[in-house]
Specification:
Number of strands of chain B: 10
CATH topology of the largest domain in chain B: Rossmann fold
Oligomer: heterodimer
Shape of chain B: globular
Distance between the termini of chain B: 38 Å
Structural class of chain B: alpha/beta
Radius of gyration of chain B: 18 Å
Radius of gyration of chain A: 20 Å
Largest sheet of chain A: 2 strands, antiparallel
CATH superfamily of the largest domain in chain B: P-loop containing nucleotide triphosphate hydrolases
Order of helices and strands of chain B: EEEHEEHEHHHEHEHEEHH
Strand content of chain B: 15-25%
CATH architecture of the largest domain in chain B: 3-Layer(aba) Sandwich
Shape of chain A: globular
Number of domains of chain A: 1
Strand order of the largest sheet of chain B: 6-7-8-3-9-10
Number of helices of chain B: 9
Strand content of chain A: under 5%
Number of domains of chain B: 2
CATH class of the largest domain in chain B: Alpha Beta
Strand order of the largest sheet of chain A: 1-2
Largest interface: A-B, 24 and 37 residues
Distance between the termini of chain A: 28 Å
Largest sheet of chain B: 6 strands, mixed
Helix content of chain A: over 70%
Helix content of chain B: 40-55%
Order of helices and strands of chain A: HHHHHHEHHHHHEHHHHH
């Protein structure tokens, strides 16, 4: 029931804004969905496999650049480009991740930060991707909604609505895929490696292999997100796609919502993204503009959550509260 | 035909400390072997070398005649040796059932059959009713039992139990001994137990190997080993001499 309701809300959300012309809120919805999708991807390595990856945005950038290059030079459709981007980023991820899977805990995290730091000058200077001048994605206007959905090419009117539904589609695919992973052998092995690496190896699990697989799944999701973002922004700039927020926000959404839970990234994004958008929109012209107020608020939220509910908001007894609200007897506590 | 497990002159050093010196032993299919020795005798190191958590500096370890001296943990497990750990290594945030399913997924890629196998084994080892408890919430005795069940789920031919009974109450210990006997009887595995509690090892094992200062002191049937003067001095102490 809750699933059907959530799906309906997600499907109908942009309609009133489209009709009234407040398409800014469609963009907020687009960003929430994009971020939730990235969070679900990050949860695979961070929440399930237990390896904190602080540099996932390199795959976001690889995705954005690959699809943009394929579009500009070879005229590939964005969806084909998305497939290419996923393949390229997964291959690169496997190659760069395997050596660092020897590292654990903080050391693994530091290695991922290092990768991100290495990626920044490459992005800013590599001539193939036009260095810091970036790549522009030339899109013709007036293709219509159906054409846009098939090509990710939207310009002008209808773009907000189109990209909202593109993001919703990719988000739904990611959610569905992650759910399948969670229930498969992979999901079990990831969590086994997280809970006790030696214990996992002792029952025949190749911990390094499964860490690589977990990070590659994450890389695939980030690459897809990068493609979507590139075609939305109509350009790929190194400082934009390697922006630190593409590392921090998905991760923070997961931690705020509930690490290791699929719904965590979704709930976290619904809470965090509007905060940042609201800040930018309301303080945009004021004296506090550009002072990073949203980052300060994020910091406060993280501190509150970490101190008060380290397992995230989803770990609160929502079911019991809902039952009380509806006047029903509280659900039986878990036995044991 | 080669024996199931053969350790040939295994030596393992940690810097200047020789944890195992020139240890050789054989385990045949279907026997229960006790590995005893005072603290620091090198029992766990030997276990670690056999299971692939460590690799011997010298000597060889063979499973069915094939050299596994340098195979890693996960490969040794796949070849048919499963182990438990002195310090329990259950997957704390997963349920007991999920822990065992992780073991069962060694032999199948599908979650459904792994679940069925795990339920079956949990009933066999007496963990029925605790399937949905998070492993971190189990008692020590149940955690050790869970680890044995998880190891069994990988369908090994040789089970290495590292102090599976230490830290348990006498009643829990008796239950654990009964479990090991039942595993041996009904699943026909070869089992090697490292144990401190003499009252457990002696009646349980078909054969006992004594380690002292990293070297093999002696081996033989429990009754013989318990009468061996060297073993008594090195390990068992006067209390046991008086009783024997």
């Amino acid at each position: 029931m809750a699933w059907v309701a959530a799906a309906l809300v997600a499907l109908l959300y942009p309609i009133p804004f489209e009709r009234s012309g407040y398409i800014y809120y469609e963009t907020v919805g687009f960003l929430v969905l994009l971020n939730a999708m990235l969070g679900i991807g990050w949860n695979i390595i961070g929440g399930w496999a237990g390896q904190f990856d602080f540099g996932p945005n390199i795959f976001f950038a690889i995705g954005a650049y690959t699809a943009a290059l394929l579009f500009i030079h070879l005229g590939w459709n964005a969806w084909l480009g998305l497939l290419g981007a996923v393949v390229v980023s997964v291959v690169i991820c496997a190659v760069v991740t395997y050596p660092v899977t020897r590292l654990r805990g903080h050391y693994f995290a530091i290695a991922t930060v290092a990768m991100w730091m290495i990626a920044q000058p490459i992005g800013a200077t590599w001539e193939l991707i036009n260095g810091s001048r970036g790549l522009f994605i030339p899109v013709a206007a007036g293709g219509g909604f159906a054409h846009g959905m098939l090509t990710m090419e939207f310009a002008g009117r209808g773009k907000g609505l189109g990209f909202y539904y593109l993001a919703l589609l990719l988000f739904a695919l990611t959610l569905w895929g992650a759910r399948a992973v969670e229930r498969s052998k992979l999901g079990f092995y990831f969590r086994a490696v997280r809970d006790d690496q030696e214990g996992a190896e002792g029952i025949g699990i190749d911990s390094r292999l499964y860490k690589v697989i977990a990070r590659c799944l994450m890389a695939a999701v980030f690459a897809a997100g990068g493609v979507l973002y590139g075609f939305w922004a109509l350009a790929v700039f190194p400082d934009q796609v390697l922006e630190v927020n593409w590392n921090i926000l998905p991760m923070m959404a997961v931690v705020v919502g509930g690490l290791g839970r699929l719904g965590g990234a979704v709930l976290g994004s619904i809470i965090l993204i509007p905060i940042s958008q609201l800040m930018t929109a309301t303080l945009g012209a004021g004296p506090l503009a550009g002072r990073g107020i949203d980052i300060i608020i994020y910091g406060a939220v993280i501190m509150l959550i970490a101190g008060w509910r380290p397992n995230g908001l989803l770990s609160l007894p929502w079911q019991r509260w809902a039952g009380r609200l509806l006047g029903r007897a509280p659900a039986q506590p878990a036995k044991g | 035909m080669p024996p199931l497990l053969q350790v040939e002159s295994c030596t393992k050093r940690f810097g200047g400390l020789v944890a195992n010196r020139d240890v050789s032993l054989v385990i045949e299919p279907g026997e229960i072997v006790g590995l005893i020795g005072p603290n620091g005798a090198g029992k766990t190191t030997l276990f670690n070398c056999i299971s692939g958590a460590l690799h011997p500096d010298e000597g060889r370890i063979r499973l069915d005649g094939a050299d596994i001296s340098h195979a890693r943990l996960e490969r040794v497990c796949r070849l048919g040796i499963a182990r438990t750990w002195q310090v329990v290594r259950s997957f704390g945030r997963m349920t007991a059932l999920e822990n065992v399913m992780c073991g069962a997924l060694r032999r199948t890629n599908r979650v459904g059959p792994a679940r069925a196998r795990a339920l079956e084994l949990m009933a066999f080892t007496g963990l029925a009713g605790k399937e949905d408890t998070p492993a971190a919430g189990l008692t020590l005795a149940d955690k050790k039992r869970l680890e044995i069940t998880r190891a069994l789920a990988t369908a090994p031919r040789l089970l290495l139990l590292d102090e599976a009974m230490s830290g348990l109450t006498p009643i829990e210990t008796a239950a654990a001994v009964e479990l090991v006997r039942r595993i041996h009887r009904e699943l026909g595995l070869a089992i090697c137990v490292v144990e401190h509690v003499m009252e457990v090892v002696m009646p349980l094992s078909h054969r006992v190997i004594v380690l002292d200062h990293g070297e093999k002191l002696t081996e033989g049937p429990p009754a013989e080993v318990a009468r061996d003067e060297r073993v008594i001095t090195a390990y068992l102490g006067d209390r046991y001499r008086a009783r024997a």
